[in-house]
Amino acid sequence: MDAFFGTLISLALALFLSLGLGRVASRIGVPRVTVYLLVGLVLGPHVGQRFFDEGGLATELLLGPHTEAPLWVLKQLAIGFILFGVGSAFRFQTFREVGPRILGLSAAEIGMTGLLVGLAVGAGTGDWRLAVIAPALAISSAPSATLVTLREVEAEGPTSRNLILCVGNNNLVALFLFPLLFAVAFGGGHPGQATAFALLALVAGGLIGFGAAVWLESITGRHELVLLGLLVVLAALGLVHWIEPGSTGLGMLACFAAGVAVANGSPHADALFRYVENTVYPLYVLFFIAAGRDLHLEAVIQGGALGVLFILARAAGKYFGARIGLRLAGWGEEVSPFFGAGLMCQAGIALGLVATLEHAAPDATAELRHVVVASVVVFELVGPWLVRQTAVGAGEVKLANLLPHEEAKGREALRWVLLELRRNLGMLRSESALREEGPTVRHAMRRRPRIVSESLPFERVLKALGETGADLLPVVDAHDHFKGVISYEEIKNTLYDPMMRDVVIAEDLTSVVEDPLEPESSLATALEVMDRHRVHSWPVVEGQRLLGMVSRTDLYSLMQRS
User: Fold this and answer.
1) Predicted structure pTM score
2) Section 462-482 average pLDDT
3) 239 with 254: CB under 8 angstroms?
4) Where are the domains of the chain?
5) Nearest to residue 347, comparing CAs of 280, 284, 295?
6) Which residue in 347, 342, 346 sits closest to 389, CA to CA?
7) Is a pLDDT exceeding 90 seen at residue 508?
8) Which of 4, 256, 274, 399 is placed for a possible disulfide with 83 were both Cys, Cβ 3.0 to 4.6 Å?
């Protein structure tokens, strides 16, 4: 217990630096995840402690050996919650819409990455065994860095959604493929047993999630939702540890399956995932600090020429494999052509498989292990930035999330604190009015809303409206000119008329918008328009072109931040 409390000052210092530097980084377009990793790296044993003698005060403040055990526990818990969140993106409704295409995209990206990495390792080492096992170490993507980076900028759209789905596919394939490739390369292990344990973990997690979905029907309070989410993740991790002690990979599978079951089993799942994510976000920060602490910069040097070859082959496989997959799957312009750049993050699963190799074949795999660790260092540092750029380039991030926030500093901050104290003590009789100048609709709108063509059949219009969850569906013509919106009010009569359903198209259901918002309209104007039409969202138009859709939720959020 004393050892645990001895780590608190070190963790407090790491969080202090993460909070301060993270705010600075967000103003210059650097993901906070990268800052958290760098804080862990600088305070960790591989950088910070090399400049101080053992036993001094500085050693106690840094993330030295005394923090290793507590951080390991925090990392396992964080991985569980992150995979639980990744599982929430695997909706059966989504797979009915994009299932074959997303599987084709993943297959092309995984196949190209595995092929190029296998050839690179084979050519660099001349050892066919390493060439066989290397693809399993390269295809996995870090769900933690990818998911948290997308959540940081509130990315929303087909590119962001498919990134999470592909990350999940990559990791599932890596975990199932590794024991088989290891058996082929080294003739050891028990691939059948490993596969059986993996399936058992998925089933166990799915059953826990199903039970939670049933229980969720009788729970409405926010605090109870959070408790239920914590219960699910802890139960999944604990049960898997009981089945196979120390298996991080199986714990990830169980939490992922639990997330899938809850997301598809309850209409209240979104609230549960949202509240749980907000509650455990500090745990995510500690996870990245711990991950940065364990990064070995010297591993980049130890990787040598083979490390460079491995990194280039993995990057090329992810990028060009995704481009081929997008073309074969027919995504067109709906998904960013730079999609593969968002899959570069690499961490937990790759390091877990490296640890397995170190235990099962230490001498034969030493060179490959150094290479993979070097790859993790590189991709974990640059990967979050690439994820952010992919989402921003796809137009799926609100402009307000990219602008630096005004902050009170120094004497100004002190002034506001003193004014607040005076107000609470009843010493102020009036409050300052809000400034008239401020953010506009351009900053709050979502630039890549779901749109439909005016020639779309009724059944597909109904499907699109149901999948978006929005109250309005914008309609465009063949030249992408904005024509109006479709609401449920417009389609409810057709919905119950079987004869009309076969002949009606989107154009017949479209209501012309006489007063669309302009990008420079004020937030107050946008709310007034929505109140007048009694809707929760409204189109933003410039000329004949639809720029985006803005919702009440986004307006309220931006007004609160401003």
Assistant:
1) 0.69
2) 81
3) yes
4) 79-397, 441-561
5) 295
6) 342
7) no
8) 256
Q: Hey, what's the torsion of the CAs at 520, 521, 523, 524, to 10 degrees?
A: 150
Chain length of the chain: 562
Classified as helix, coil or strand, 545 is: strand
Q: Is the pLDDT of residue 208 over 90?
A: yes
* Average pLDDT of the segment spanning 169-193: 78
Pick the CATH number of 79-397 from 1.20.1530.20, 1.10.230.10, 1.10.10.350, 3.20.20.105: 1.20.1530.20
Structure tokens at 317: 């496989």
Q: What tokens does 533 get?
A: 């039409």
d(CA 450, CA 537): 13
Q: Which residues contact 65 (CB under 8 A, 6 or more apart)?
A: 45
Which one, of 256, 289, 346, lies nearest residue 75 by Cα? 289
Q: What percent of the chain has pLDDT over 90?
A: 10
Say how far apart CA 376 and CA 356 lie, in whole Å: 16
Distance CA 342, CA 81 (A): 21
Q: Sorting pLDDT into bands at 50, 70 and 90, what band is 437?
A: low
Q: Does domain 441-561 have CATH number 3.40.50.11030?
A: no
Q: What does the pLDDT look like over 371-396, one tens digit per residue?
A: 888 888 888 888 888 998 898 888 88
